Amino acid sequence: MAKPWSQSVASLESIFAVLSDHDHPFVLIGKYALRWMGVQVIPGEIMDILVRTSQAASICQALAQTGEWLEVDESSIPSFVTMVERVDHRSIRRFKRCDDRWYISLCSEDTYDLTVDTKKIQVLHPVNLNSVLVESEFHPNPTDRGTDYWASRPYLMTDKNISFIWAPGGLVSFPVFIPTLPEFIDSCLSCMGGQSSEHNPSFGIARRDMDYLGRYLLLDLPHQQDKLLSKVKNTKQLAEFFMGRQQRQERRMKLVMESQAECAAHAKPGPQVPFIMKPLG
Cα Rg for the chain, rounded, in angstroms? Predict the structure, then answer.
């Protein structure tokens, strides 16, 4: 039995073959895509792949016929890999690797409000060892990174002595893509626009992904916002997101300060120990 998420190149070949037969690209979304966007997130054991809505049924049927993948429903996935936001959604078909303990979710285009034929960027492998920002133009501090840990993050593809490919020794035999950052952000904003998590299951996922990007790409900085506002389509929604994010951070900071002040007010002073200078020798 292979280790959980061994992610060998061989285990992906059946997926590549099915997509190739359908003249369909391999497009990562979700947390595995975020790893190539500079987000230091633990992706888990479920990989999300974007598929054309018109081809989703045929691709799912062909994948099941390989004998390597078994279609499963949410209730059959062990609790240790089930995430709260993965609620029942008809546009998502999930498969388990028969000889391993990992899963893929085939998400049709309406799930992320994102088309397969959108602008994409190629990456080295579906899984990477270190999160890396492929689109270096969106790095918050690209020219003066130095040796400081936080100033150097996220990593870039040009960084030396850093391994990004998970599987030792090999690139995959089929091109792997992720949406560009502006396209991905537009899809998140579209899922979030004018709705709440109660009415749209995709809202929570989109909000989470935007918060990840905001944190790791320092999107609260004006110069980072300027980069995106010139490239996304939903500029109004993005500006509203930045404003709402700032307000949420201010409220959290206020609560933290109030809590600290309350703790200090109720804290009992410790015993006063006199300082005694002992003679030398």
Answer: 23
For residue 140, say if its preceding peptide bond is cis, omega within 30 degrees of 0: no
Q: Give Cβ neighbours of residue 152 (< 8 Å, ≥ 6 apart).
A: 145, 146, 159
**What tokens appear for 101 in the block?**
């303990």
- Compute the distance between CA of residue 218 and CA of residue 139 in angstroms, rounded to an integer: 9
Dist CA 54 CA 108 (whole Å): 9
The Cα 55–Cα 132 span in angstroms is 31
**273 found inside a domain:** no
Give the range of the structural domain holding residue 153, as residue numbers without chain letter: 10-180
Instruction: Specify the pairing of strand 132-133 against strand 92-97.
Output: unpaired
CB 93 within 8 Å of CB 49: no
Tell me the average pLDDT across 125-139.
Answer: 91
**More confident call, 12 vs 212:** 212
E strand or H helix at 133: strand 132-133
Q: Does residue 201 share a domain with residue 144?
A: no
CA distance 202 to 207: 9
What are the residues facing 71 on neighbouring strands? 95
Q: Which band of pLDDT confidence, cut at 50, 70 and 90, is reported for residue 151?
A: low
